[in-house]
Amino acid sequence: MTVEVKNLGKRFGSVVAVVDVSFEVENGIFVLIGPNGAGKTTTLRCLSGEITPDTGEIKIFGKEVKEVKEKIAVLREDRNVFSNMKVKDYEELYSLIYPKWNPVLFRRLVLHFNIPGDQPVEKFSAGMKTLFLLSLAISSGAELLLLDEPTQGLDPIKKEEVMKVLREVGEERVLIIASHHLEEIEMLADNFAIINEGKVIYRDNLDAAKEKHRIIQASELTEEDEIISVLENGMLVRTEREVGRYPRFRELVLAYIERSLKHFSILD
Amino acid sequence: MKRMEFVLKRDFKEKSGLIIVAFFLFLIPPHFWRIIVSLILFSYLLPKDVEDGKESLLLSLPLKRWEIFLYDFLIGTAILLIAGFITVGVLKMNVTSVFRLLLAFPFIYGISMISSTAGKGNFGIPLLVLILDMAFSWSWWRYVSPLYQGSIIGAVISILVFVLSFIYFNKEGKM
Q1: Is A66 in Cβ contact with B64 (below 8 Å)?
Q2: What is the pLDDT of residue B175?
Q3: CB distance A96–B59 less than 8 Å?
Q4: Rounded CA gap, A251 and A230, in Å?
Q5: Which of residues 30-89 of B touch A (CB under 8 A)?
Q6: Residue B172 Cα, gap to closest chain A Cα (Å)
Q7: pLDDT at B164 over 70
Q8: Chain B residues with CB inside 8 Å of A82's CB?
Q9: Cα separations (Å) of B26 from B22, B86, B145, B147?
Q10: Which pLDDT value is given to residue B12?
Q11: Beta bridge partners of residue A10, listed in sequence order
Q12: Which of A70, A78, A82 lies at the smallest CB-CB distance from B62?
């Protein structure tokens, strides 16, 4: 298993960020989905070794995170960058700490995304920073990429280009992406986990998840069906019966989040 | 070694102006002047990164917490030591003066790290400590002062603060 996360918990002072996150990733693209503040970014920060979880266990390539940091590259949500540095400065620095740094791929990505080499990176627009930092992460040669909102601040054309690049990268390496853009996730993900209020509330393979659920009308409900949530156009149920229609990914995610909010209890 | 080279190059690219100015100002001999210059340099290395939230940027790269703490201290120390030994060679100053400064560096870096890790800024509190230390330097304090380094006690306090600052930096990062 490439990544194993068991019962991860993390709090910052009195703020509980993650309560109970568990998932496994073997290969391909795994997406953590959830609303703002759900715990996606904290989970990625724990995975990158930037912060240490309070509880639970993380194994990456079967080892502790600190032992395999050279195999992990990160696109951070805050897009924080070093000052007074241009593209070539980053290239020089990254080549020192990533043993499998790929300069050819980096230059191809810089050209492809039209990243200006003559400006300090801190002066780039938000979208350009995303493209640049993503290019660094991909070119690092790391076998595990942790990408927080990889299409943040991008125009629709650049978003499409990035999605295409990520799909290609995901064929060779493991990607864990945190996002709340459901349409993009549906196009990218092999497997996913829905996080809300610091807990994983559902995880599955994308296609398998759709096959296990149906949108039905109240009149079609039987005792065999597990109601997940009532939606505007019917109800989402988990069932093995051939009934109703398959849910769209958006419906599936929203229904599970809705259910987790309804079932909220201080005793959980 | 490559990770140390990363930290060194990053410091020189991001903070070259500060490093050059500190280097030349350190060539001016009086002990407390050099302490002030050391404070400026050390507080604007890792403590400033902690203040700006950039240490988390470093930690998201293949760098460990102890590495960024120790390497930045060694880099600052090396820069100032080179300047210090130039004054020994050119101005024929006593080598002991440089070693007294060397023993004060862990205290300066440590105080600045504790202050910035606690969210109290990288410069203000260390400067206050420095002023208080100078204010009492006429008294018995001079013999235990970690900045004046009048006896072995000063050296012990300096190293103790350095170790405590590392423990605190490590602990806070895990929160």
Answers
A1: yes
A2: 42
A3: no
A4: 10
A5: 53-54, 56-57, 59-64
A6: 10
A7: yes
A8: 10, 13-14, 54, 57
A9: 6, 10, 21, 15
A10: 94
A11: A18
A12: A70
Q: What is the mean pLDDT of chain A?
A: 91
> What ranges in A69-125 are assigned the alpha helix state H?
87-97, 103-112
The minimal CB distance from B53 to the residues A80, A84, A92 is found for: A80
Hey, what amino acid is at A47?
L
- Min Cα–Cα distance to chain A from B137, Å: 39
* pLDDT computed for residue B174 by the predictor: 45
Confidence band of A260 (pLDDT split at 50, 70, 90): confident
Domains of chain A: 3-197 (3.40.50.300), 207-262 (no CATH)
Q: How far is CA A94 from CA B15, B51, B61, B155, in A?
A: 18, 24, 9, 38
| Nearest-neighbour CA in chain A from B23: distance (Å) | 20
- Report how far Cα B21 is from the mean position of its chain's Cα atoms: 15
Measured CA to CA, the distance from residue A216 to residue A223 in angstroms comes to 13
* Number of other residues whose CB lies within 10 A of the CB of residue A140: 26
pTM exceeding the 0.95 threshold for the entire prediction: no
Q: Give the span between the Cα atoms of A148 and A101, in whole angstroms.
A: 21
Contact list in A for residue B14 (CB cut-off 8 A) is 82-85
Cβ under 8 Å to B: A residues 111-150:
none
Token digits for A187? 């196009």
CB-CB under 8 Å, B57 with A80: yes
Of A52, A76, A92, which has the smallest distance from its Cβ to B174's Cβ? A52
Q: Is A81 on the interface with B (CB under 8 A)?
A: yes
Convert the pLDDT of each residue in A238-257 to its tens digit: 998 888 899 999 889 989 98
Q: Hey, are the CB atoms on A82 and B14 less than 8 Å from each other?
A: yes
Q: B9 CB near a chain A CB, below 8 Å? A: yes
Taking the CB of residue A198, how many other CB atoms lie within 10 A of it? 22
Question: For B47-88, what is each residue's pLDDT tens digit?
Answer: 999 999 888 899 999 999 999 999 999 999 999 999 999 988
What pLDDT is attached to residue B173? 57
ipTM, two decimals, is: 0.84
Query: Where on the phi/psi map is residue A243: left (φ > 0), alpha (ψ -120 to 50), or beta?
Result: beta
The CB density around residue B17, as the number of other CB atoms within 10 Å, is: 9
